[in-house]
Design brief:
The protein is of the alpha/beta class and about 500 residues long. The chain folds into two domains: about 190 residues, Lambda Exonuclease, Chain A (Alpha-Beta Complex), CATH 3.90.320.10; about 210 residues, Ribonuclease H-like superfamily/Ribonuclease H (Nucleotidyltransferase, domain 5, 2-Layer Sandwich). It is about 45% helix and about 15% strand. The protein is built from 18 helices and 14 strands. Strands 1, 2, 3, 4, 5, 6 and 7 form a seven-stranded mixed sheet that branches. It has a five-stranded mixed sheet with strand order 11-10-9-12-13, with helices on both faces. The protein has a two-stranded antiparallel sheet with strand order 8-14. The structure holds iron/sulfur cluster. Iron/sulfur cluster binds next to helix 2.
Amino acid sequence: MRKILSKTRYLYGIQCPKLLWVATNQKERLPETDAFTQHVFDQGHLVGQLAQQLFPGGISATATGFMEAINKTRGLLKERKPLFEASVLSGQLFSRADILRPVNEDEWDIIEVKSSTQVKEINFDDVSFQKYCWEQDGIKINKCFLACINNQYIKQGQIEPEEFFNLHDITAEVKKAGEGIQSRIEEMLETIRLSNCPQASIGPHCSDPYPCVMTECWEHLPENNVFTLYYGGQKALELYQNGITDILNIPENHTLSERQRIQIISAESGQPHIDRAALHEFLDKLKYPLYFLDFETFSTAVPLFDGTRPYQTIPFQFSLHIQDSPGGKITHHSFLASGKKDPRGEFLAALCRFSGSNGSIVAYSKAFEEKVLASLAEEFPDYRECIENMLSRTRDLLEPFRNFYLYHPAQHGSASLKKVLPALTGLSYDEMPIARGDLASLAFLSIASGEMPESEVKLKREELLSYCKLDTGGMVKIVDRLRELAEI
Ligand code: SF4
């Protein structure tokens, strides 16, 4: 069977020959699309439909089958009307344009729709492949555009596509990206014809321009591999390329930061590193009662509520554990929006009801909570005083871990709560039905949109509450553990 080089595969080929080969010849090796990626696709679809409204009178060129779509497009091209999802097959090259717009007597503009708010380098390769395919098929391309989301757009009533999108003329950039495209394509066609998968070493290309889905390439690495090195970056890559995969095998004389040295010593001994003086200093700054706070938020490409922007962070849930004194009584409050309307007002009302007026508010990686609160202060001036009071009391539980006052070998070079919590307390997210913030957002959006069957909503809401509660309950335990370790 003739192997097709599609636009997606061309972009894979730019990233890595192995990825291109697997995507063409052994698709089953690629992991299934996860819920979050599917959500990103769905958002893209929604944005694509909105962009079509920019071209009234346009015709959809979609069809149920591969060849049907190509043949349908061929027929529709004669009508000289904007075409949506127009497909072209030229030899082994296949591409689909989001929008083709007829211009001049016999030319077309390509309009590629993106859910991002900025033009990216990879977009030029994307459109240059499309342009090449159309031109190989005898279609004249005049200009190329990218329709990106205008992140300053504020929804008021119905979305207005003219305001929602920014149209960027990328004709010149596409022309440049198209230099040498023919030989690049020939090389890729040779790659996909190979009977065996080409070898490819892991490196920066695995996350550029997109995180590669082929996790199997990383599976040979040991537990304490050089890529876990704290802020390892280029240094980790150089070590790997020089045949050093385990941090325990890094030569003594290698240049490392103090924190990287602590990480290695800790991995060797299996013992935590503890700077008791620094821990004491941090703990002394916490003023009781302590309010352990965590938010869950969502953001959507197309804003859901009036007064909000694309990708605005909307809080819908919080968990708050309050502890009177070290080792003292703990109370818990939580809020989870109904999903039936803009949650921000009720969220703030509940938060201000429970957050008191003195005592430290403890968040993990507080910059996020602070940013959300600062934004809410602008949007809801009635709550400004409460929010400003909260902001003045916020302390970051990330501090002792980011600064290595405490480092546990089970953190494997990460200071994230997902690593620190199990390392220090034995509590874990492993058994949680919802174990990540992005999945919590999706679960809530699914409830809010009405997509989730009513019979599942109650259980999902309980899962959301448990997930957020583990974050703040876990923080209580982390502070308890820090106190113990500071005294040992
Ligand atoms: S993980 Fe890296 S090496 Fe493996 S296929 Fe992807 S880009 Fe290539």
